[in-house]
User: Fold this.
Amino acid sequence: MQRRAFLQALLVAGCARPFGEEDERDGEATFEGIVPFVDEGAVPLDTLVGEGLDGRLYTDLARLDEGSLVVDDELFYVRTRTPDRLDYGRAWVVRIVDRDVAIEQIVARSRPMGVTLLECSGNTSGGSFGLMSAAEWSGVPLVELLPPGASRVRVSGFDEHSRPSARSTAGASWVLTADDLARTGAFLATSMNGGPLPRDHGFPVRLVVPGWYGCTCIKWVNEIALVGDDEPATSHMKEFASRTHQAGVPALARDFAPASIDFAAMPIRLERWRTARGPRLRIGGIAWGGDETIGELLLSFGDALPVERVVVDRPASAARSWTLWHHERSMLPPGRWALTLRAPSAKRTRRLDQRFYARAVVV
Ligand SMILES: Nc1nc2c(c(=O)[nH]1)N[C@H]1C(S)=C(S)[C@@H](COP(=O)(O)O)O[C@H]1N2
Ligand SMILES: [Mo]
Assistant:
């Protein structure tokens, strides 16, 4: 079933003849199996693990297809589960500047905000790159809730956990300028995929900053404060400074660069097929990040093979979500192959330049 869905995705993506005319002549193509990625963490996928700050759900990217680009609530990645010290018995109020705003008022003003992808800035191979998902959100643009002339705000969320974490620091707040809010269209989200926010995703209200790393998308928002130009960086900002590609760990919030996600791409699924022409490799992948139109990627398997061109149809208008691409070639020779992509026409690709999203297979 999943394979059929994947094939349909390829058809939808514009590959009407996955194997070309030669294969039609040569006869049927037979699916022989998945070529798994190696040397990635053995984390369980699509399953909640851990509690509180260490709570995670790694989304299985291999099953993405045209019909599942908006990820169901239960499969959307989780980084930090609902704090156990959060008391849902009390009415939720967000302190906005000098007013206490009841959650009902924010919900009443919420409207569709479209599909936006979130990616954890710590989305590494150790987690099979599963800390990334897209959903459809409803909410209220943050600028609409602020007094005119506000130049810098600090958005904070509830983050008290009775169990400390070895890896993560409690306390979640990020400072954004009016310019950041206007440019990204940052909004307070009260709904995900048509329903209320699930608790683990910040019920009843979270921040979504389209195009920025997930660490800026504060969950369980309870305070939005106006701050001055000399506002110190928060502990949360400092914790995520290197993961959001800051120069060192700036002491002041104003010295943080926008935590934007550059254009990036990676393979998500390699399939081995048998055809009359010989064994074939079909590669499915995703592209996301940046805000520009991208039409072509360069796929490398390492120094032993020439780089191959991959057509990708990623208009700027789709940049808030992710886009599927696919590529087909003869089966790789026996050996270990590291797949990396480049996007020469993209404005900036810091992670692709570092081979951050490299994925290896053994044939
Ligand atoms: N209150 C609070 N908000 C938070 C966090 C947190 O630990 N506490 N983690 C951040 C990080 S690092 C990420 S990647 C996103 C994850 O959102 P998700 O779990 O809904 O996918 O939430 C952000 N918001
Ligand atoms: Mo994150």
